[in-house]
Amino acid sequence: MIKTLSQWLGLGLLFLLAGCQAGLRSNVEAALTNPDQTGIRWGLVVADMDGTELLAVKPEDRFTPASNTKIVTTMAAYHHLAALTDPARNPGTQVFLVRATDRGPPNLILRGGGDAMLTDATDCESTCLATLADAVAAFGIEAVGTLIGDDTLFPNERWGPGWSQEDLQYHYGTAVSALSVNDNLVWLDLAPGARVGHPARLQWQDGDAYFNLFNQVITTAAETPRTVRVERLPGADRVRVYGNLPIDQTPFELRLAVDNPAELAALRMQGLLEARGISVDAIATRHRPLRLIDEAPDEVAEATRADLIAHPIAAPNEAIATLAPAPLTDSLKRISKDSQNLHAELALRRLGLLEGTGSRDFGVAALEAFLDEAGLSELGYAFHGGSGMSIYNRISPRSMVQLLAFAARQPWFEAWLADQPIGGIDGSLERRFVGTPLEGKIFAKTGTLNGANALSGMMIAESGRELLFSIIANDRPATTRSAMAEMDAALNVIAAAY
Question: pTM of the entire structure?
Answer without folding.
Answer: 0.92
